[in-house]
UniProtKB/TrEMBL annotation:
It comes from Medioppia subpectinata. One of its GO terms (molecular function) is fatty acid synthase activity. Keywords: Phosphopantetheine, Phosphoprotein, Transferase. SUPFAM superfamilies: ACP-like (SSF47336), alpha/beta-Hydrolases (SSF53474). It comes from the Eukaryota. Its EC number is 2.3.1.85, 3.1.2.14. SMART domains: PKS_PP. It catalyses: acetyl-CoA + n malonyl-CoA + 2n NADPH + 2n H(+) = a long-chain fatty acid + (n+1) CoA + n CO2 + 2n NADP(+). This is Fatty acid synthase.
Length: 376
C-alpha cells in the first residue's frame, strides 16, 4: 500500500495527544499543537490515502469505527475526545459510538464501472486541453472544484473493464496513450497531462513514454502533478512495507484488500483480516465483495446500481493499483537514479499541498524528489 504513513507505533492509550500526534504525522503537520480546535481533517488537506491510514489507525489502536466522511469531518477537539474516552473506558465501549453522528458506512463514491474510456468533465472551451488521470478510486470527486474553475477543457481517462489485465504503472501508461491515440485523434500532440495520487504516477510515466517516441510522433506535452511524484510514492510505499511487515505477495494483497474495505465500509479489521487469510487466494476478492455488500445492505438507499460484479472489479482494481505502486517504487530507484536515469525534459508543474501541510523532510524533499526524475 502506498500512502503517507506514521513511521512509529502509536503511543500507549491514554497519553494526552498521542492520537493527534499520530494523525499529525500521517498528514505531515509541522506544528499540530497550535491548530484551532474546530479545524477538521478535511480542511487540513487530508487526501484519500491519508484518510485510509487514519481510519486504520483508529480501528486498530482505538477500537473506533468511523465512516470516511466522519473522518473527514473530525475536528482537533473530537480527536482529543477519542483519546480521552479511550483512556476513560479502559478498553471498554468503542469510541466510535460517541463520535459517529450517523451510521453511514459507505462514502459518496458510486460503485459503477465506467463504460467509456474518455470523459469530458468540465465545460472549458479555451486553451490547450488537459488530460486528467484520477486517484486510486478512479473518481474525479476530489478534483471537481479545481476542474470546474479551469477554462481549459479537461478530459478524464477512466478505468474500464479493458484495464482489468493491467499489472504495472508502465502497462497502464501505454494503455492510456493508446486510448488517446485512438479516441482523441483530433488533439494530435496538443495536450497536457495532469495527475493526482496514483494518477500522478501514471501521468508521469505517460509523459516519459511520449518523450521517447520517434520525432514525428513526439509531443511537447507539459506535466502537472497534484501533490504527487514517482519518488514520493516510492518512499511512502517503502515506509508502509516496513511498518506493516509486508514482505510477501500474500501479506501485500491482504493489506490492499483491507485498505479497500476501510475506504468504503466499517468492518472489524482483525476478524475480517483473519477471514481473508483463511480464504483461498482465488476467492479473496469475491469474499471482500460479499463483506462489502453485506455491510451496504444496512443502508439500502445506497444500494442503487451496485452489483456484486462491479464491486469485485472495483475491489480487484483498487488492490492491483496499490500493488502497482509498490512494484513501481522498487523499479523507479533504478530507472530514475544516476546520470543515465530516465528524465522528463519538458515543462513540469508540481502543485504541493498548502503551507500548513508539510511533509516529513526525512522522508521527502521540498520538490518531492522530482529533481531526480526531470530536468526541472
Amino acid at each position: 500500500m502506498a500512502s503517507r504513513t506514521a513511521d512509529y507505533k502509536t503511543e500507549a492509550s491514554g497519553k494526552k495527544g498521542s492520537l493527534m500526534k499520530t494523525i499529525a504525522h500521517i498528514l505531515g503537520l509541522k506544528d499540530y499543537a497550535s491548530l484551532d480546535a474546530s479545524v477538521t481533517l478535511g480542511e487540513l488537506g487530508m487526501d484519500s490515502l491519508m484518510s485510509v491510514e487514519v481510519k486504520q489507525t483508529l480501528e486498530r489502536d482505538y477500537d473506533c469505527v468511523l465512516s470516511m466522511e466522519d473522518i473527514r469531518r473530525l475536528t482537533v477537539r473530537r480527536i482529543a475526545a477519542i483519546d480521552q474516552q479511550n483512556h476513560d473506558n479502559n478498553n471498554g465501549d468503542k469510541s466510535g459510538q460517541l463520535l459517529s453522528s450517523q451510521d453511514s458506512p459507505v462514502n459518496d463514491f458510486t460503485f459503477t464501472v465506467a463504460t467509456d474510456s474518455v470523459e469530458y468533465i468540465n465545460e472549458g472551451k479555451t486553451g490547450r486541453p488537459v488530460i486528467l488521470l484520477p486517484p486510486l478510486d478512479g473518481s474525479y470527486g476530489l478534483l471537481n472544484d479545481l476542474v470546474a474553475a479551469m477554462d481549459r477543457p479537461v478530459i478524464g481517462l477512466n478505468w474500464t473493464h479493458d484495464c482489468g489485465p493491467l499489472v504495472t504503472i508502465e502497462d497502464t501508461a501505454r494503455h492510456y496513450l493508446n486510448v488517446i491515440d485512438e479516441k482523441l485523434k483530433n488533439l494530435g500532440n496538443d495536450y497536457d497531462l495532469m495527475g493526482y495520487s496514483f494518477g500522478g504516477c501514471v501521468a508521469y510515466e505517460m509523459a516519459v513514454l511520449l518523450q521517447q517516441r520517434p520525432q514525428q510522433l513526439s509531443a511537447d506535452t507539459r506535466l502537472i502533478l497534484l501533490d504527487s511524484s514517482p519518488v514520493q510514492f516510492g518512499i511512502y510505499a517503502d515506509e508502509v512495507m516496513k511498518k506493516y511487515q509486508l514482505s510477501d505477495h500474500k501479506s501485500q494483497e491482504l493489506e490492499t484488500l483491507m485498505t479497500f474495505l476501510a475506504q468504503y465500509v466499517s468492518v472489524d479489521y482483525k476478524s475480517v483480516r483473519e477471514t481473508l487469510e483463511k480464504t483461498p487466494a482465488e476467492e479473496r476478492v469475491e469474499k471482500v465483495s460479499q463483506i462489502f455488500l453485506s455491510s451496504m445492505r444496512k443502508n439500502m438507499d445506497q444500494m442503487n446500481g451496485v452489483t456484486e460484479e462491479s464491486v469485485e472489479f472495483i475491489a480487484k482494481s483498487f488492490s492491483n493499483k496499490l500493488l502497482m505502486l509498490n512494484t513501481y517504487s522498487v523499479c523507479n530507484k533504478q530507472r530514475f537514479g544516476g546520470e543515465n536515469g530516465v528524465k522528463f525534459a519538458n515543462d513540469l508543474l508540481l502543485i504541493r499541498a498548502e503551507d500548513n501541510i508539510v511533509n516529513n523532510k526525512d522522508l521527502i524533499k521540498h520538490d518531492y524528489g522530482l529533481s531526480q526524475t526531470s530536468l526541472m
